[in-house]
Amino acid sequence: MRRNSHFSLALALMAGVATTMSFALPTDAAHAVQKKKKKKKEAEAPKYDLTDAFRTVFGTAQAALEGDDMAAAAGALQSLEATAKTNDEKYLAGQMYLNLAVKAKNLTYQRKGLELSLASGKTPQEDLGLYNSTLGQMSLVNDSNYEAARKYFTAAAAANHQSNVMYYQFAETMFGLAINNSGGTSINAANTPLAQEGLDYLQKALEMPDVKNRLDRKALHKRGANIAVAIDSPSAGSWVKKYVNADRGADSWHLALSQLRLKAKYSNQDNLDLMRLMRRTKSMRTSADYAEYADNAGAQRLPGEVSTVLAEGTSAGLVDSSDQYFSAVLSTSRGAVSQDRASLGSSERAAKSASHGRIALATGDAYLGYGQLDKAIAMYELAMTKGDIDRDRALTRLGIALADKGDYAAAREKFTMVSGVRKPLADLWLLWVDQNDSTATAQAEPAPAG
Question: I need a surface site. Which of 14, 110, 317, 410 has the fewest CB within 10 A?
């Protein structure tokens, strides 16, 4: 009976925002507005409908803003805001607050200016995206107000404002909504559509150019993979592969193999090749992982491999050889190694004379476990020639032996031929081959600019 480790899938789904990038400075929008205003020709300045009372207070506020007393300037703008009655006046009051925000480097004034300007209905079309995006960022980062952030980001997107930063923040807004609405620690089925929408925005963020390197792409791929797996998204497999490609570490491989393990519900022999990949990617984390590997391989069927794997687990501090289960398995496997090795010659001869490939496949497995790769490859090839075997299993293991030998081109060819339930596993083996094949990696990397 297989002892199932289930590869712990605890996900750090924080209710807050993942700090995976440097956000825009609080006054970015205000500076951008002023730059745009300076570029406009005097003749293009709009005509405003202003009352005499507003004009008087506006002059006072403008004079105060030109001074160095920020408190006095703020007071003057409060009077200006109170005097503003028409939409034009409210818009100009908002613009004055943006001027004050730049000079005082004050986020509160920036928010006031943006809100007044938008509420007036007079904000130029070309500024709507920037204003709404900035308010969305402030609602998300400073307030954790996901509903408000969603409203602003939606308006920014509707105004055709496109930015990888905005799409990332839009994604985090949807994740935050989904988590909060689900109770704050996970995402339930009712809120899965919100999280899926967030994944779509996160994908947009990753697809856009990032010339200023403001996004930690590895962290974003990890975030997307964790969310996708947590909600059992149809795109989970794709997100996990992207994470493995971006990260190439034990954490990403652990998530990828865990996700496949739970979805595929493999038999022991299929799962053994998954565990073999877990071993090679150093993503085995618990004693249960080692127990599962040993059960899949079989202490008597593949004693050499089981002994070696459990020795590795002991060295890693994850296997306690005095534990009743491990003690028994180690005793069985170590006791069977000598006889098993001695029988390999006769097994090889029997495989060559047999009318089927089953003996050759089993003999290849034994050689693979002992690291005798050339013999393993020969036996797997013989098994496929004779037939009457699980062809996809033989292809997978032939690919493993070739990859272990460093013949990545041949291994890639075999893994590509795998079909059926093993295809997703073979695809992950292909990723591992690509990561270890320095030639393929060099060809995939773009040439340096200039």
Answer: 317
SS (H, E, C) 28-87: HHHHHHHHHHHHCCHHHCCCCCCCHHHHHHHHHHHHHHHCCCHHHHHHHHHHHHHHCCCH
- Report the Cα–Cα distance between both ends of the chain, in Å, rounded: 60
Distance CA 48, CA 91 (A): 10
Amino acid (1-letter code) at residue 262 = L
The whole-angstrom separation of Cα 54 and Cα 45 is: 19
Q: How large is the C-alpha radius of gyration of the chain?
A: 31
| Cα–Cα distance measured from residue 429 to residue 280, given in angstroms and rounded to the nearest whole number | 10
Helix, coil or strand: residue 398: helix
CA distance 161 to 176: 22
Torsion of CA 427, 360, 295, 372, to 10 degrees: -80
Contact (Cβ atoms closer than 8 angstroms) between residue 268 and residue 296 = yes
Please give the Cα distance from 276 to 419 (Å, whole number). 19
Q: Taking the model in full, what pTM does it have?
A: 0.79
Sign of dihedral through CA atoms 192, 249, 260, 290?
A: negative
62 class by beta-carbon count within 10 Å (0-12 exposed, 13-18 middle, 19+ buried): middle
In the structure encoding, which two tokens stand for residue 298, read together?
């079989």
Segment 49-70, tens digit of pLDDT: 899 999 999 999 999 999 989 9
Question: What residues have CB less than 8 Å from 118, skipping those under 6 apart?
Answer: 94, 128, 131, 132, 135
Taking only the tens place, the pLDDT of each residue in 285-339 is 999 999 999 999 999 999 999 999 999 999 999 999 999 999 999 999 999 999 9
Q: How far apart are CA 146 and CA 143, in angstroms?
A: 8
Is residue 215 within 8 A of residue 165, CB to CB? The reply is: yes
Per-residue pLDDT reduced to its tens digit, 89-109? 999 999 999 999 999 999 999
The dihedrals phi and psi of 264, each to the nearest 5 degrees, come to -80, -30
Distance CA 212, CA 216 (A): 11
DSSP letters for 243-302: HHHHH-SHHHHHHHHHHHHHHH---HHHHHHHHHHHHHTT---SHHHHHHHHHHH-TTTS
For 8, other C-beta atoms within 10 Å of its C-beta total 12
